[in-house]
Design brief:
With 411 residues, the protein is an alpha/beta fold. The protein folds into two domains: 198 residues, Rossmann fold (3-Layer(aba) Sandwich); 167 residues, Rossmann fold (3-Layer(aba) Sandwich). It is built from 16 helices and 18 strands. An eight-stranded mixed β-sheet has the order 4-5-2-1-7-8-9-10, with helices on both faces. It is globular, with a radius of gyration of 22 Å. It starts with 11 loop residues before the first strand and ends with a helix.
Length: 411
C-alpha cells in the first residue's frame, strides 16, 4: 500500500453520496437530515472545488423509513448550496418502495450527469447498496475511474449472532460484503485515519483525509464574557456509545459543588435516541443546580450560532465501543476549525493530534468533571487551546490541500 501523491489536476467529479438539505428532508418526509454524512460530503466537495475540480453531488434522498407525503412520485430537484451543485433524482414517494427503486433512480441520475457534464471520475461515499450500484454503472458503463470514500467499517462478529453483540448481525454481514465489492471495484480509497487501513483491509492506493474544513474564526478561543459561566457544548448523536451517560454522570458530580454549577453552562444539541429520557435527566440536574439547556435538533444556521457562542466542546465516545479505534467523530474537526477548546476521549486518530490542540481525557466521569472544573478556573488555558486549534486546523485541514490529495488518485 502506497499513499497517493498530491496533485493539482483538474477533474470533473460525480460524487454519489447521502447529502441532504433541510428542504428535501421536509419535502420527502425523511427521518433525519443526515448531518454528519451531509457535512462530510459538502466538505470533500468543497475541497475538490478548491483544488480546481468541477463537482456534482448526486443523492437519492430516499430511505426505508421515509414518511408518506401524499405523493406517489417526488420530482427531481437541484440545489446550489455553498457553491456546490447537487441533484436529487426523482423518487417513488411510497414508503419502502422508494428505497427499493433507489438503484434505478440513481442510475438514471448517473446517465443524466454523463450526458450533460461528462464526468472524468466517480467518487462514492461509503458503500450503501443503491449508491454502490450507481457507482458501478458509472465505472463500467462509462469507463471512468472510481474512488471509494470509506467512512465506516462493518465488522461481522460471532457474538452478534449469539445475541451478545451490539449490532444487527445480518446488517453487519451485508455491509461487509458491500464493502468488499466496493473495494474490489474502486481504483483508489479515501480513509479518515490510518487505523482504517487494517480494519478495512485496504490493499490499494489510498489517501488519508481526516478533517476537511475551511477555517474562518478570527476570535478563536476568546470568551464572550470572561466573567460569566464557561459555555460547554455537547453536540451530535446523543447516546451512550457517544458518551452521553458519562457526560451526565460527570455533571451529577459537578452539582455537588455550588461553585462548579455557577461556573459551567451546558448546552446539548443533536439527535437523542431517547429524547424524553434525556430531557428528564437534564431536568433532574437542573433541579440540583446545574445550568443546562437542551436545544434538540437544530437547523444549520441555529447550530452555527450555538457553536459560535460555545467556548468548550466535549466529545467523549466510548473508547471500548465497536468502532472507537477506527472512527473519529467528525464534529471534533469542526470544533477545532472554529477555534474551540476540545475535551475528547482517545478514539480514532485523536491521539495523533498534539496535546496542546486537543485535551484528551480518560473515559471516566470523575476525570471529565475535574477537567471541566480546571477549564472553568483557567480561562487563559481555554483561550490558548482555541488559538492552537485554529492554527492546527488551518495547516492540516485546508480544503485545497485535501482536494489535491483526492485528485491525485488518478495519477
Amino acid at each position: 500500500m502506497n499513499p497517493m501523491p498530491e496533485s493539482s489536476r483538474t477533474e470533473r467529479v460525480l460524487f454519489i453520496c447521502g447529502y441532504l438539505t433541510e428542504d428535501i428532508v421536509r419535502e420527502r418526509g425523511l427521518p433525519s437530515p443526515n448531518v454528519a454524512g451531509s457535512n462530510r460530503s459538502v466538505r470533500i466537495a468543497e475541497a475538490l472545488e478548491a483544488a480546481g475540480a468541477d463537482v456534482l453531488l448526486l443523492s437519492s434522498a430516499t430511505t426505508l423509513r421515509q414518511k408518506w407525503m401524499r405523493r406517489i412520485f417526488h420530482p427531481r430537484r437541484e440545489t446550489q448550496g455553498s457553491g456546490i451543485k447537487a441533484v436529487f433524482p426523482w423518487s417513488i414517494g411510497l414508503p419502502y418502495l422508494g428505497a427499493l427503486f433507489e438503484p434505478l433512480t440513481l442510475s438514471l441520475g448517473v446517465k443524466e450527469a454523463f450526458e450533460s457534464r461528462q464526468p472524468t471520475m466517480v467518487l462514492l461515499y461509503n458503500y450503501y447498496p443503491g449508491p454502490l450500484f450507481a457507482a458501478l454503472v458509472a465505472k463500467y458503463l462509462y469507463g471512468v475511474k472510481m474512488v471509494l470514500d470509506i467512512e465506516d467499517v462493518s465488522i461481522p462478529r460471532v457474538a452478534d449472532w449469539l445475541g451478545r453483540g451490539d449490532a444487527r448481525p445480518v446488517q453487519q454481514l451485508a455491509c461487509w460484503v458491500l464493502l468488499k465489492l466496493g473495494m474490489a471495484a474502486c481504483d483508489s480509497v479515501i480513509v479518515p485515519s490510518r487505523r482504517f487501513l487494517r480494519a478495512a483491509h485496504v490493499d490499494r492506493r489510498y489517501t488519508v483525509v481526516s478533517g476537511c474544513i475551511a477555517v474562518d474564526c478570527p476570535a478563536a478561543g476568546k470568551p464572550n464574557d470572561p466573567s460569566g459561566p464557561l459555555s460547554v457544548l455537547i453536540g451530535g448523536k446523543l447516546d451512550d456509545e457517544q458518551g452521553l451517560g458519562l457526560v451526565l454522570e460527570a455533571m451529577e458530580l459537578l452539582t455537588r459543588s455550588r461553585q462548579s454549577c455557577e461556573r459551567l453552562d451546558f448546552h446539548f444539541c443533536g439527535f437523542a435516541q431517547d429524547e424524553r429520557k434525556l430531557k428528564g435527566q437534564l431536568q433532574v440536574l437542573a433541579a440540583r443546580g446545574a445550568r443546562v439547556r437542551y436545544h434538540g435538533t437544530l437547523t444549520s444556521d441555529e447550530y452555527r450560532s450555538l457553536l459560535a457562542q460555545a467556548q468548550v466542546c466535549v466529545a467523549m465516545p466510548n473508547p471500548g465501543g465497536r468502532h472507537a479505534q477506527t472512527k473519529t467523530p467528525s464534529k471534533v474537526y469542526e470544533y477545532l476549525a472554529h477555534g474551540k477548546a476540545v475535551i475528547a476521549s482517545d478514539v480514532g486518530d485523536l491521539c495523533e493530534i498534539p496535546g496542546d490542540v486537543v485535551s484528551l481525557c480518560d473515559w471516566d466521569a470523575m476525570a471529565l468533571s475535574l477537567r471541566l472544573e480546571e477549564f472553568a478556573s483557567d480561562r487563559e488555558k481555554v483561550q490558548r487551546l482555541g488559538e492552537r486549534a485554529v492554527e492546527f486546523a488551518a495547516a492540516e485541514y485546508a480544503p485545497a490541500v485535501n482536494g489535491g490529495k483526492i485528485l491525485s488518485s488518478l495519477q
